[in-house]
C-alpha cells in the first residue's frame, strides 16, 4: 500500500525552506574547507551537522515531503524482492560463463571460416 499523496500547497515558503536547506548544506561544505587548520574530526562534525540540518529543513518543503514519501515506497519495494540463494547465484554465474565460452568459440570459428573463404577461396591467397 503506497503512502497517501501529500496534500500541501507549493508556496514561496516551500521554496524558501528548500533554498535554506541547500544553503545550509553548501555552508557546511564551505566551512569544511575554511576550517582546514582544525582537526579533521571537528571539520567532519561541522560538515555532518550542516548537511543533516539542511536535509531536515528541506524535508519540510513540498519537494522534501515528496522525496521522503518516494524513499519510503522504494524501501518498501526493496524489502519485497526475493533475492537468489548462494547456490542459485553460483549456478546462474556458471551458466553465463559457459554461454560466453560457447559464443566465443562460435564467433572465432565463424571469423576463421569467413577469413578462409575470402583469402583462400575467393582471392586465392595462401
TrEMBL record:
<keyword id="KW-0472">Membrane</keyword>
<keyword id="KW-0653">Protein transport</keyword>
<keyword id="KW-1003">Cell membrane</keyword>
<keyword id="KW-0812">Transmembrane</keyword>
<keyword id="KW-0811">Translocation</keyword>
<dbReference type="InterPro" id="IPR001901">
    <property type="entry name" value="Translocase_SecE/Sec61-g"/>
</dbReference>
<feature type="transmembrane region" description="Helical">
    <location>
        <begin position="42"/>
        <end position="63"/>
    </location>
</feature>
<dbReference type="InterPro" id="IPR005807">
    <property type="entry name" value="SecE_bac"/>
</dbReference>
<comment type="similarity">
    <text>Belongs to the SecE/SEC61-gamma family.</text>
</comment>
<keyword id="KW-1133">Transmembrane helix</keyword>
<keyword id="KW-0813">Transport</keyword>
<feature type="transmembrane region" description="Helical">
    <location>
        <begin position="89"/>
        <end position="109"/>
    </location>
</feature>
<feature type="transmembrane region" description="Helical">
    <location>
        <begin position="16"/>
        <end position="35"/>
    </location>
</feature>
<dbReference type="InterPro" id="IPR038379">
    <property type="entry name" value="SecE_sf"/>
</dbReference>
<protein>
    <recommendedName>
        <fullName>Protein translocase subunit SecE</fullName>
    </recommendedName>
</protein>
<dbReference type="Pfam" id="PF00584">
    <property type="entry name" value="SecE"/>
</dbReference>
<comment type="function">
    <text>Essential subunit of the Sec protein translocation channel SecYEG. Clamps together the 2 halves of SecY. May contact the channel plug during translocation.</text>
</comment>
<comment type="subunit">
    <text>Component of the Sec protein translocase complex. Heterotrimer consisting of SecY, SecE and SecG subunits. The heterotrimers can form oligomers, although 1 heterotrimer is thought to be able to translocate proteins. Interacts with the ribosome. Interacts with SecDF, and other proteins may be involved. Interacts with SecA.</text>
</comment>
Amino acid at each position: 500500500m503506497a503512502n497517501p499523496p501529500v496534500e500541501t500547497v507549493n508556496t514561496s515558503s516551500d521554496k524558501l525552506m528548500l533554498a535554506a536547506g541547500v544553503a545550509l548544506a553548501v555552508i557546511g561544505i564551505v566551512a569544511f574547507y575554511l576550517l582546514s587548520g582544525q582537526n579533521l574530526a571537528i571539520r567532519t562534525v561541522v560538515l555532518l551537522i550542516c548537511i543533516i540540518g539542511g536535509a531536515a529543513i528541506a524535508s519540510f518543503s513540498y519537494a522534501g515531503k515528496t522525496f521522503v514519501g518516494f524513499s519510503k515506497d522504494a524501501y518498501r519495494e526493496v524489502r519485497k524482492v526475493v533475492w537468489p540463494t548462494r547456490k542459485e547465484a553460483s549456478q546462474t554465474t556458471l551458466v553465463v560463463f559457459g554461454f560466453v565460452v560457447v559464443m566465443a568459440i562460435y564467433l572465432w570459428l565463424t571469423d576463421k571460416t569467413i577469413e578462409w573463404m575470402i583469402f583462400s577461396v575467393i582471392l586465392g591467397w595462401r
